[in-house]
Design goal:
Blueprint (H helix, E strand, L loop, with lengths): L5 H6 L13 H11 L2 H9 L12 H25 L15 H10 L5 H20 L6 H20 L2 H20 L1
Helix pairs in contact: 3-7, 4-5, 4-6, 5-6, 6-7, 7-8
């Protein structure tokens, strides 16, 4: 049986992909401890951004992990094709990826700036979270989607901090160097 969390959901600030959040994911989880029953809190904590296997913990988590795995597989296919390699040894699970996702990733792979490409992938994930939340208003599923969106926004909070920008620039320089060597 799913619980309803009217007060908690109603008290959360609205999120937008284009704007920094007024709350960090860690604060959201701390607040959730006061409002969620222990089983739901445990499930909420399992809703992590990079999940590729939820082990059947919850249908929403299964759907999220499946999306991540399919996104990663399709990115591997695009990169392997570009490098003339067989993607089969790097992919997991079946090869099915919805056509809308393939088309979007095809557009995203043409973006030369790695940060902008990553943002475009996260925008796609955000939109899928919106789809998964349809019909959910004050339940655990909407809180899982909210937490995942906060994790996306937290990534950009770190990237846009001085420390994150420095790390990104170092990574980008290594990536450019590797491309030159190939």
């Amino acid at each position: 049986m799913s619980c309803s969390y009217y007060y908690f959901v109603a008290s959360l600030p609205t999120l937008s992909f284009e704007k920094p959040a007024n709350i960090l994911y860690a604060a959201f989880l701390k607040d959730a401890q006061q409002h969620l029953d222990p089983r739901d809190l445990e499930l909420l904590a399992q809703a992590v951004l990079e999940a590729i296997d939820s082990r059947g913990a919850h249908p929403f988590l299964d759907q999220w992990a499946d999306l991540n795995r399919r996104l990663k597989n399709e990115i591997v296919r695009f990169r392997a094709k570009k490098l003339g390699q067989d993607p089969g040894e790097f992919t997991q699970g079946d090869a099915y990826v919805p056509l809308d996702v393939i088309e979007r990733l095809g557009q995203i792979t043409k973006i030369s700036n790695p940060l902008e490409a990553e943002k475009a992938i996260d925008q796609l994930r955000w939109e899928k979270l919106d789809e998964y939340s349809v019909g959910h208003f004050f339940d655990l599923e909407v809180l899982m989607a909210y937490g995942l969106k906060l994790q996306i926004l937290d990534r950009y909070h770190v990237i846009h901090s001085g420390q994150g920008e420095d790390a990104f620039e170092r990574y980008h320089q290594v990536e450019i160097f590797e491309k030159i060597q190939v």
